Amino acid sequence: TARPLRAGSLATCWDTPHPLSHPSSPKEPSSEQKRHSSCSRHKSTHVETSETERNCVLSCFRKSLSWHTALRIRRKSEKRDKEGRKIENGYRKSQDGLANKVSVKVQTRGSKRTVAAKLVNKKLLRRDQVLQEIRLLQTLDHPNLVRLLDTYEIANSYVLVLEMADQGRFLDYIVSWGNLTEEKAALYLREILEALRYLHNWGIAHLDLKPENIVVEHVSSQPVIKLTDFGDAVQLSPTSSYFHPLLGSPEFSAPELVLGQPASLMSDIWSLGVVTYVVLSGASPFLDESLEETCLNICRLDFSFPEDYFQGVSAAARDFVCLLLQSEPERRPSAASCLREPWLQPRGVANTGSATFNHTQASQNHPASHLDTSRLISFIERRKHQNDVRPVDAIKAFLHTRLGPPATFPQRSHCPSLSHKSPAAAD
C-alpha cells in the first residue's frame, strides 16, 4: 500500500543512535561538505564527512535493515487492535485525547513509545514542500533538535511523526514549574544556542524561531530544551540569496525578513533576542496595536526595558538582549559567539562554549531573585489565537513609505533608554 514516492533512503532507529548522526558540536564544515549537504526541493542528499564514516554508515544501515523503518510518505492504512481501537499506519491516538499526541507500538521490539504527530494540511503546502522539510530533518541529529521518526499520508494531511517532548512547550513549562531565575533562563537559552550553532555550522537557518517551536523534555530529571518545526528552515547558499515569505505575525521576525530582504543565519539570532526579552519580562518588545505598527517598530528597533517589566533583571541580561537585537545582520553575533557571553556562563565553568551543564549549578553572573512569570500566562493565551498563515507581503509598501529609502533606515545598535515607552502588554 506504500506510495512509491520516497523521502530518501534514511532509516529511523528506535533503540540505537541515528545511523547518520553528527557530533553534538560539529566543526565548521568544509566547502566540500557543505556542497554534499545542500538541500533542495527536488534532490535528496545527506551530509557526508569522510569516506571512512560513509562506509561505516552504509555497513550499519545494511546490518540493521530488518528492524529499521524506512522514512517515506505512505498512504493511509487503518486497522484495529484487540480492543477494537483504531490503529492508523501503526499508530494509535493516546487516550488522553490530546490533538497531536499518539501512542506507537513497535512490532519488532514489542515496546511502546509516545510520539508527536505534526499534521500538514494539503491545501496549505504542496507535496514537494513537505518533502523538503523531511529531507532536511533526515540530515539532522542533535540532542537539542526534535527528530523525525516516520511519515505517512492521510486524506487531507501529511503526517510527520516526531519525538515527543514530554514537558510540552517552553513557556508552558516555565509557567507550570515557576521559580524562574536569570540563571535558569540563561541555561535554557544556552541549549537553544547550541541547537542554532549546530544548524548554522551546516548553513541551515531555522527562520521560524518562536516560543511555540521550542519544547522541553526531561532527561535524567534535567530539562532538555529542543527546537522543532522545520517547515520554514532552509540551507542557505553563499552564492545566491533566499527571500523568505513572511506569514502571520512578524512578532519574532528580523527586520530583513519584514522588509523583504535576503534571509541570513543571523535572522535566527534576532528571533532569539526577542524570545529572550519575552522570557525575562513576559512582554513582547515590538508588538503594537496593528500589524503595520508592529513591523514599523521592528524596523526602527523601537523597544525598551521599562522597570515595571524588568524589575530584578540584571544589566547583563539587558545587554545580552541588545547584543542580539541589532538592525544590521552582520552586527549580530554568531551562535558560537553568543555562547561565550559572560551572562550565559555558569559558575566554575570555563568560557569555552561547552554544551553540557548541570541545571542545578549556581551562577555568580545572575541575581538569585525570581523573575515574574505572571505576564507569560496572558502572553501564551494571546499566542494561542494567533493566525500564522496570512501573507504579510502587502506591508512592505507601507514600510518603505514610512521609513524612506533603505539607506536612510535607522541603524540603532545601542541599548535603549529605560525611560523609553513601554512594550505592548501580552494582552
UniProtKB/TrEMBL annotation:
Signal peptide: none annotated. It holds the Pfam family Pkinase. Residues 17-28 have a biased composition (Low complexity). One of its GO terms (molecular function) is ATP binding. GO terms for cellular component: nucleus. It comes from the Eukaryota. Residues 351-367, 410-420 have a biased composition (Polar residues). SMART domains: S_TKc. Residues 88-344 form the Protein kinase domain. One of its GO terms (biological process) is positive regulation of apoptotic process. Residues 1-48, 350-370, 408-427 are annotated as: Disordered. This is Protein kinase domain-containing protein. InterPro entries: Kinase-like_dom_sf, Prot_kinase_dom, Ser/Thr_kinase_AS. Keywords: ATP-binding, Kinase, Nucleotide-binding, Serine/threonine-protein kinase, Transferase.
